[in-house]
C-alpha cells in the first residue's frame, strides 16, 4: 500500500516538475504561441454566431416586486456588489488581505471591481434585456474571470507573466465586445467565456500553491463551474425546482459565493512555509 502511494506521489511530482519546466522563461513563448494557435484555429472553424433575440429570453421573466421587470434576475445581481465593493476597498486601502506582491494587488483590484460593476451592469441589463445593454453584463463578468485566471499565474508561476496575461486578456475582452457590436459575431466573446472555465480548474489542480488556505480555491472553483452550468441550463434548473428560481438567477448567486469565498481566503491566508504533502 505504501509502495502504491509512493508511486502516485512520485508520478504527481513528475507531472508538476514537467509543468514547471514548460512554464520556464525559455518555454513560455512556445507555450503561449501553441495555446494562441489552438484558439485561433477553434475560432476559425466555428461558424459565425450572430445576435439572436432568444439570447435575451430568460426562463424567469416575472415581475414580482414593485413593478420591477425580471425581478429575481435583477435582485440576484446585488450580492456581487455587496462583496465586490468591500473587497476592492480592502484590497486597495487596507492591510487586511494576505497579498505579498503588487501585481497580486492589481489583479485582485480588477477582480473585485469587475464584481462591483457587475452588480450595477447586470441589473441594468436585466431591467430591459437587449443587444445595447448586454455589454454592461458581459464585460464586467469577463474582467472578473480573466482577473482570476491571471491571479493564479501571478501567485503560482510568475508575477510579470501574470500581469502581461491580465492586460492581454482585458484587451481581448474589449476586442470581443467590438466584434460583437461591429460585426454581429459572438464567436470571440463565447470563446473568451469558455477559456477561464477550462484554465482556472486546471491551474488550481496542477500548480502548487504559494499561500495557506489554498483549498478555498477548490471551493471557489466549484462554485464558479456550477454558476456556468446553471447559466447554460437556465430553463431546466427553473423547471427542476418547481419554477421557484431560474438557473440564471442561481448563476448570479453562485458567482457571489465565489467572491465571498475568495474574500475569506484573502483574510485568513499567509505565505506557505511547508507545502502540503
UniProtKB/TrEMBL annotation:
Keyword Methyltransferase found: no
Transmembrane segments: 29-49, 78-99, 106-127, 139-154, 161-178, 190-207, 212-229, 249-268
Domain of life: Eukaryota
Key words, A-Z: Membrane, Transmembrane, Transmembrane helix
UniProt name for this protein: Alkaline phytoceramidase
Species assigned in the record: Rhynchospora tenuis
Amino acid at each position: 500500500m505504501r509502495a502504491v502511494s509512493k508511486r502516485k506521489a512520485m508520478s504527481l511530482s513528475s507531472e508538476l516538475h514537467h509543468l514547471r519546466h514548460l512554464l520556464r522563461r525559455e518555454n513560455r513563448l512556445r507555450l503561449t504561441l501553441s495555446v494562441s494557435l489552438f484558439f485561433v484555429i477553434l475560432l476559425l472553424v466555428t461558424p459565425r454566431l450572430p445576435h439572436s433575440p432568444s439570447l435575451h429570453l430568460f426562463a424567469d421573466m416575472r415581475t414580482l416586486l414593485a413593478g420591477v421587470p425580471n425581478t429575481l434576475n435583477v435582485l440576484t445581481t446585488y450580492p456581487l456588489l455587496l462583496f465586490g465593493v468591500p473587497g476592492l476597498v480592502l484590497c486597495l486601502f487596507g492591510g487586511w488581505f494576505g497579498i505579498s506582491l503588487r501585481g497580486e494587488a492589481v489583479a485582485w483590484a480588477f477582480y473585485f471591481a469587475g464584481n462591483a460593476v457587475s452588480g450595477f451592469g447586470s441589473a441594468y441589463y436585466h431591467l430591459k434585456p437587449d443587444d445595447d445593454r448586454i455589454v454592461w453584463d458581459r464585460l464586467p463578468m469577463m474582467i472578473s474571470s480573466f482577473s482570476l485566471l491571471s491571479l493564479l499565474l501571478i501567485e503560482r508561476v510568475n508575477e510579470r507573466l501574470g500581469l502581461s496575461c491580465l492586460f492581454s486578456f482585458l484587451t481581448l475582452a474589449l476586442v470581443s465586445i467590438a466584434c460583437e457590436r461591429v460585426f454581429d459575431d459572438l464567436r470571440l466573446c463565447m470563446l473568451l467565456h469558455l477559456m477561464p472555465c477550462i484554465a482556472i480548474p486546471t491551474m488550481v489542480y496542477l500548480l502548487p500553491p504559494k499561500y495557506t488556505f489554498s483549498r478555498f480555491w477548490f471551493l471557489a472553483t466549484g462554485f464558479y463551474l456550477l454558476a456556468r452550468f446553471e447559466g447554460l441550463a437556465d430553463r431546466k434548473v427553473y423547471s427542476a425546482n418547481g419554477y421557484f428560481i431560474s438557473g440564471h438567477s442561481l448563476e448570479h448567486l453562485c458567482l457571489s459565493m465565489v467572491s465571498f469565498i475568495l474574500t475569506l481566503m484573502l483574510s485568513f491566508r499567509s505565505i506557505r512555509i511547508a507545502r502540503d504533502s
